[in-house]
Each structure stands twice: as C-alpha cells, then as structure tokens.
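can u pls check wat happens w/ S-adenosylmethionine
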Amino acid sequence: MRRYPARLLRSRHARAATSVRIWPKPSDSVEVGRNFTLPVSADPSPPLLSGAQRQCVDDVAARLDAVAADLGAADGPEAHARLADRTIEVLRGLRDEAGPADWAAVAVPAVRAHPLGALMQACPLTRHAFARPRGYPGDAGLLDLIYRHPDADAAVAAASAAGRAAYAVTAGTAPCAAVRERRRILAGAIDRAAVERPGAAVLAVACGHLREAEISAALREGRIARLLATDQDRASLALVAGRARDLSPAIAARRLSVRDFIAARATTEAEIGRFDLVYAAGLYDYLDDRIAARLTRRLFGLLRPGGRLLVGNFLTGLREEAYMDAVMDWQLLYRGEAQIRAFAAEISEVDLAGQRYFADSGGCVGYLELERA
Ligand SMILES: C[S@@+](CC[C@H](N)C(=O)[O-])C[C@H]1O[C@@H](n2cnc3c(N)ncnc32)[C@H](O)[C@@H]1O
C-alpha cells in the first residue's frame, strides 16, 4: 500500500500556522481508498488556545478525520469526488459553529494542517488558488480553470486522477457555475450594446483574459467599434493583445489599475475616451465599500449619455465560502443586495437615467446596472 505522498503533507500549508501556534502531531492513520493512507488525529499543542478554541481545533480534526474514515477502502474518481464534496460541506458546518473569530484564528490553520486539506491540493483549481502563481488571489489563470477554458487543459491533464476527480467537483460547484454564467452575461451586455448603440465603445475593467470577448457575437462580427481591455496584470494583458489579433481588431489592451481610475491618472476622457458600456467582473469582490463607491463614480463618469455600467459581486451565503477560505486561501468580500446597490452611493440622482439590480440564476452573484442620463 502506498502512503500519502509526503511531498503534499509538507505543502505550503505551513504558512497557515503563522497566526496561531498549531503543531499537528499525527498519531494514527486511516485508509482512504486503496492508494492513500492519511495520518489523522492531529494534536495541536494548546498553550495559546482558550478552551473554546481548543474545542474548535479538536472539532476540525475529528470531522475531517471522519470524512477520511467514511471513505473507508473506497477508491477511484468517485471516491475522490465524494471526498471533495464532503470536505466542502463539513467545512461549511465547522465555520458556522466556530464563529468568525475562532474560524479565522484557529479553525483555518487547523484545516490547513490536516492531511485532508493537503489532499485537496491535488485539485488543480484548489492548488492554483492557494499557490497564487501571479502573486495575488483570483488571477485570470484561476478563472480559466473555472471557465474550463482550453488554455487550462494542460494544468488539468497534469493533475493526478484524484486531483482531476476533485476538480470535477470543485469546478462544478455553484460559485464556479456562476462565474461561467457571468462570462455569458458580460458577452450578452457587449452584444446588447452593439445592437442598441451601433459602433459602440466598450471598457472592460480588470479584464483578466477577457474570455467574454471569445463568445461575443458582436465582437466576432465586427459590430463593436472599440473595446479597451484594462487590468493591472501585464501577463493577462499580453494574452489579451495576442488573442485580439484573431478575435477582433477593435480590442486594445492597456495597463490601468483601480487606483488609476480613482485618481483619474491616465484615465481621463481625453486619454481614454468615453464609452457606451463599461463593466467590471471579479473585481468588486476585493474592494472595500468606500473604494467600490469611488470607483463606481469614476467609471460612471466615463459613460456617454445613455451608456451603461455593469458591475457584479458575489452574494453572501455560499455553501463553498468556508472551503474557498480555508483550503483555497481565496477570500472575497461577499455582499447583499443593499451593499451592492450602495456602489452607486456617490452618483448624483440627476445623472442616473436608471438603475437595476439582478441576481444570476443560482443566486450567487448580484449585478448592478447603472444607466447614465
Ligand atoms: C477574478 S479576475 C477576473 C477577470 C475577468 N474580469 C473575468 O471575469 O474573467 C480579477 C482580475 O482583477 C484584476 N485586478 C485585481 N486588482 C486590480 C486592480 N487593483 N486594478 C486593476 N485590476 C485588478 C486582476 O489582475 C485579475 O485579472
């Protein structure tokens, strides 16, 4: 029988233990499928933990041990898919019970120290999120894995069979489906702008790999006059510029950050023009309320009369939040409808011709659409 690969047990989860001292001491083991044996019953040393925190750490170890034990001798893709699904569910329960402070301070490090947390790193989506290869969370490569884009095929193919099985589950979760729907919503907004405002100019903020452009009929058919794709990430912009050669001559890529927009640095009307559609997806989830409202005002100011601004934000209450936080190290600012509507707080009513809030089909992402008078 093969032991669980030591390489993964020594993974970068080590950084989890920086905020609280936890020393896992594997004292037992459980068989997970034919191919893996996980050490279990981690016993973090308690000196800095309160009684409640100690209980929280014990609960994490016990529940994750139980998930591993439940699998018994089962093996193969189905077993690993079940493992991923159970881990997501168990972490949700643990987070609800721990409360925000103990969850962050002790439960998350305990999850990362547990071999099951390490095992989930075999999933290429989980691994990419945790590794942050571009140095920041939620890069466009991660989005490609979520989109199941062909550019991510090599990363998936390089994963183990267990990792691919876990990926089938993680990429199939509701938030990932919502990101794929978001891509379609953005492409739809571009297509609609082309119909309603012939020769439309479009501004994509934090565009990543601009994957929505690949499924926009209007862009393919040359009905968009200009699409300015902006992001802070040079590598993403290089990819966008390369793809633009095949997709549409209307696309131009420029390195502009949120800060540039807020400070009106290289982003004035004289410098980048005005637009019929401005949108940002996968960005507001990282911006605090104040910055979000400021950015919204600035982006709204770049619209032509009758133009629309469309922004989205993940909604509160996702089942996968705890897994994303603890195992993927991917934290978002989840918001409710009122907080998303408040993005428009700094825009004068007289400038607004209309505003619309809507949620996606799975209730995962909320959208605010603002029309300029
Ligand atoms: C989750 S990805 C979303 C990419 C794309 N909009 C999509 O939906 O596929 C987030 C993007 O925001 C960009 N980003 C993050 N912080 C930024 C900032 N301060 N200014 C500009 N772009 C930023 C990242 O470089 C990354 O491409």
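The pocket of S-adenosylmethionine is lined by residues 138-140, 143, 206-208, 211, 231-233, 236, 257-258, 281-283 (CB under 6 Å).
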